[in-house]
């Protein structure tokens, strides 16, 4: 006699697995993105949090979760799968907040410090960043005064061919200032103007730019939009300043050629003015030999204010025109050049050059900017004791 229960058990082994209900590819991607967040919570024991001190992946998951909570369509799809209460147990998130920064935008901002991320899920819709990029391209207009800029582009192209300028990957230095040149989408880009800084709803600093393109068009871009575009463009590059050819290094390989040293000196003179401002008065010079040899007879040389000096900083350099580099420092710190006339040991009046009323940390910043190629159009502002755009 056939046992119906046994028959049912045998037939169950051949039963087809139940389908998930014919979800669309979009729904599958939403679910996959949510499951990644669930795995994060299982592993770390807490919901992903925002904050610059957080790991890049945690920040990305936090942004993604905010958006999933805010969108009704996503909540309806995911609530049955939400065993951890990530959607229903959280505070309400305003939709406009959740949509202000999506995966692509967060990645673009973090790539400069952390490198490109492999997380590319949840791209089921056209992101707000992609929409803005399309709008920016569409909003490019003919540059009516391009004749003013055409010679600049021609000069930059010739300087690139002659290795007077170099290109640097965008990201190590993400600053954008008026006078900067970039390569974006294979095309030279010039930042002609930069407006006043302002705070975005997310609390970030931003500014409106006038950007001119080598093809004779221009656009009125936000600074952060240009940064995002340069981050996303694998071939995006910053062009160094023509005077910023040197590449500095604190460590040297055997094959490196050392062609000089930048030195910063502080005078030990007893002159009343120098003694009063000793911490601010510095001599900036470049030598191809040893610094010790250069300053050996400082007390007999009016160039060194007829007094001994101490070395407070030095930077090695390679493959550089030392005269051009000294001239570059003189241009940057021209507003702080020490105006002092002294008599040499023969009674002749001498006005020493290369002495500046500038803090040591600002000199260090200038050297760093020269190393990175971001010193273009920078000058020293004595009122604020900072480097600013010219």
Structure explained in plain terms:
The chain has three domains: 25-125, no CATH class; 133-239, no CATH class; 247-389, no CATH class. The radius of gyration is 30 Å and the shape is elongated. It contains 13 helices and 18 strands. With 390 residues, the protein is of the alpha+beta class. A seven-stranded antiparallel β-sheet has the order 1-8-7-4-3-9-2, sandwiched between helices. The model is unreliable at 13-20, 90-103, 106-127, 133-138, 244-250 and 253-257 (pLDDT under 50). The relative contact order is 0.09. It has helices at residues 4-12, 25-44, 56-70, 72-78, 95-98, 103-114, 128-138, 146-161, 223-232, 272-276, 291-294, 322-332, 360-372; strands at 141-142, 167-169, 181-184, 187-194, 198-199, 205-206, 208-213, 217-222, 237-239, 247-248, 260-267, 281-287, 309-318, 342-343, 349-350, 355-357, 378-381, 386-389.
Chart the SSEs and their pairings:
Blueprint: H1 4-12, H2 25-44, H3 56-70, H4 72-78, H5 95-98, H6 103-114, H7 128-138, E1 141-142, H8 146-161, E2 167-169, E3 181-184, E4 187-194, E5 198-199, E6 205-206, E7 208-213, E8 217-222, H9 223-232, E9 237-239, E10 247-248, E11 260-267, H10 272-276, E12 281-287, H11 291-294, E13 309-318, H12 322-332, E14 342-343, E15 349-350, E16 355-357, H13 360-372, E17 378-381, E18 386-389
Antiparallel strand pairs: 1-8, 2-9, 3-4, 3-9, 4-7, 5-6, 7-8, 10-13, 11-12, 11-13, 12-16, 14-15, 17-18
């Amino acid at each position: 006699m056939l046992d119906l229960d046994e028959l049912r058990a045998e037939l169950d082994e051949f039963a087809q697995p139940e389908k998930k209900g014919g979800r669309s590819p979009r729904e599958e991607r939403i679910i996959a993105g949510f499951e990644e967040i669930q795995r994060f919570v299982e592993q770390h024991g807490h919901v992903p949090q925002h904050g610059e001190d957080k790991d890049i992946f945690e920040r990305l998951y936090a942004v993604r979760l905010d958006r999933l909570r805010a969108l009704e369509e996503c909540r309806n799809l995911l609530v049955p799968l939400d065993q951890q209460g990530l959607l229903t147990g959280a505070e309400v998130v305003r939709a406009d907040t959740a949509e202000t920064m999506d995966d692509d935008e967060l990645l673009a901002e973090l790539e400069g410090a952390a490198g490109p991320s492999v997380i590319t899920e949840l791209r089921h819709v056209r992101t707000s960043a992609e929409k803005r990029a399309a709008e920016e391209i569409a909003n490019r207009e003919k540059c009516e005064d391009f004749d003013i800029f055409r010679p600049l582009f021609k000069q930059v192209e010739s300087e690139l061919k002659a290795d007077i300028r170099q290109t640097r990957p965008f990201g190590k230095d993400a600053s954008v200032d008026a006078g900067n040149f970039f390569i974006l989408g294979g095309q030279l880009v010039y930042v002609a103007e930069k407006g006043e800084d302002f705070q975005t709803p997310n609390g970030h600093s931003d500014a409106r730019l006038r950007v001119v393109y080598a093809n004779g068009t221009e656009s009125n871009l936000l600074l952060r939009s240009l940064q995002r575009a340069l981050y996303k463009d694998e071939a995006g590059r910053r062009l160094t300043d023509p005077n910023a050819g040197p590449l500095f290094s604190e460590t040297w390989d055997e094959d490196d050629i050392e062609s000089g040293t930048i030195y910063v000196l502080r005078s030990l003179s007893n002159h009343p003015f120098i003694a009063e401002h000793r911490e601010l008065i510095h001599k900036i010079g470049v030598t191809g030999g040893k610094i010790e040899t250069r300053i050996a007879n400082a007390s007999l040389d009016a160039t060194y204010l007829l007094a001994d000096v101490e070395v407070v900083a030095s930077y090695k350099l390679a493959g550089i025109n030392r005269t051009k580099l000294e001239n570059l420092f003189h241009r940057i710190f021209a507003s702080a050049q020490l105006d002092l006339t002294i008599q040499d040991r023969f009674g002749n009046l001498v006005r020493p050059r290369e002495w500046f009323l500038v803090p040591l940390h600002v000199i260090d910043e200038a050297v760093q900017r020269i190393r990175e190629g971001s010193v273009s159009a920078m000058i020293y502002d004595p009122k604020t004791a900072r480097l600013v755009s010219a």
